[in-house]
């Protein structure tokens, strides 16, 4: 559960519960750190390849827009089963956050910065759940 999922809860958007965190908090934290590296690389490839193929035909801005759209479609599709085909939840929790991370990459041209922002974004929502204090916050 990241920040976007917590925001969805506040606005009454039903969210598909993910599997409970299994193992110790340290294992959950380490596995999340590794998983987010994979997610950022997945989105990076999803944005860069369309940009490479469309740049000379539609220019830099057009290629960035096409890259973001393609990356979002692929990344959202990869998460659809985890969100129980709940499109509103998918758009809020995956779509908005991923666009922010992609725009950070486009602006900085540094995947490490987008990864660190993604890590902070997810940990603000995950850590209270891991340590059992989420009910105190929401």
Task: Explain what the structure shows.
This protein is mainly α. It has one domain. Helices cover 79% and strands 0% of the residues. It contains five helices and no strands. The chain has helices spanning 3-10, 25-79, 87-108, 111-130, 134-137. The longest helix has 55 residues, at 25-79. The model has no long low-confidence stretch (mean pLDDT 78).
| Beta strands, count | 0
Shape: globular
Strand fraction equals under 5%
Q: Provide mean pLDDT, rounded.
A: 78
Given helix and strand content, the structural type is mainly alpha
Largest pleated sheet? none
Amino-to-carboxy terminus distance? 12 Å
The tally of domains stands at 1
- Uncertain ranges: none
Helical content class: over 70%
Could you state the order of secondary-structure elements as H and E? HHHHH
What is the count of helical runs?
A: 5
- Cα Rg: 16 Å
List the helices and strands and how they pair.
Blueprint: H1 3-10, H2 25-79, H3 87-108, H4 111-130, H5 134-137
């Amino acid at each position: 559960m990241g920040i976007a999922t917590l925001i969805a809860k506040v606005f009454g958007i039903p969210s598909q519960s993910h599997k409970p965190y299994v193992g110790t908090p340290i294992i959950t934290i380490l596995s999340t750190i590794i998983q987010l590296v994979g997610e950022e690389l997945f989105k990076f490839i999803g944005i860069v390849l369309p940009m490479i193929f469309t740049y000379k035909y539609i220019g830099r801005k057009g290629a960035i827009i096409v890259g973001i759209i393609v990356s979002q479609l692929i990344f959202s599709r990869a998460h659809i089963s985890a969100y129980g085909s709940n499109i509103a939840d998918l758009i809020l929790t995956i779509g908005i956050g991923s666009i922010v991370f992609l725009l950070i990459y486009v602006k900085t041209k540094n995947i490490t910065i987008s990864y660190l922002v993604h890590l902070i974004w997810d940990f603000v929502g995950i850590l209270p759940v891991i340590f059992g204090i989420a009910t105190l916050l929401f």
